[in-house]
Amino acid sequence: MKRIFVLLICFLVWASSASSQEEGAVNWLTFEQLEDSLKTNPKKVFIDFYADWCGPCLQMQRHVFTDKKIIKLLSKQYYAVKMNVESTDTIQFGNDVFFNERQNRRNPIHQIPLLMASRKNKPFSLPALIILDEKFKAQARYFQYLNVEQLSEILEKTISEKQ
C-alpha cells in the first residue's frame, strides 16, 4: 500500500510538472517539424521572424510571448514557428530546400523570411509576424511590435475567420 501511495505521489508531481511546462512557454517549432505537424493535424500557422539585434523582437519575446493568454492561444489554435532571419541553416520544407544565400554579407537574411515577409517597394524589416491558414496560405502579415492585447485580438480574430 505504501508503494502505491509513493508511486501515486510521483505520478502527480510528474503530471503537474509536465502540465506547467506546456502552459509556461510557447511550443516553437522548426519548419521541418511544422511540415510533419501539418500533414498529421492541419492547423493555422503563426510565424515569428526575428533577429538577435532586433530590439522590438526581443521585447516581444520577453513581454508578449511569455503572456499566458498568448501562450494558450498559440498552443491550442496554431502551430507556432520561430526563425532567426540570419540563420545559416539549410532548411527542407515541402519539396524545396532553402538556405541563406547572403551569409557572411551585409544583411544576411535567409531565403525563407525573404520569401514570406518581403514587401513590395519596402526594405525587409523586423519584427515580421505571419499568420497562415491550414493550407499554408498567408492570411495576415504584421511588421511591427504588437503588445499582448493587440496580438491576442489578431489571433482570436484570425481563428474566428473562415472556420
Automatic annotation (TrEMBL):
**What is the phylogenetic placement of the source species in the record?**
Bacteria, Pseudomonadati, Bacteroidota, Flavobacteriia, Flavobacteriales
GO biological process terms, semicolon-separated: cell redox homeostasis
- Can you give the residue ranges of the Thioredoxin domain? 7-160
Determine the domain of life of the protein's source.
Answer: Bacteria
Query: Which keywords label this protein?
Result: Redox-active center, Signal
Q: Keyword Signal on this protein?
A: yes
**What range does the record give for the signal peptide?**
1-20
Full protein name: Thioredoxin family protein
Tell me yes or no: is Signal among this UniProt entry's keywords. Answer: yes
Gene Ontology MF term list: protein-disulfide reductase activity
Pfam families annotated for this entry? Thioredoxin_7
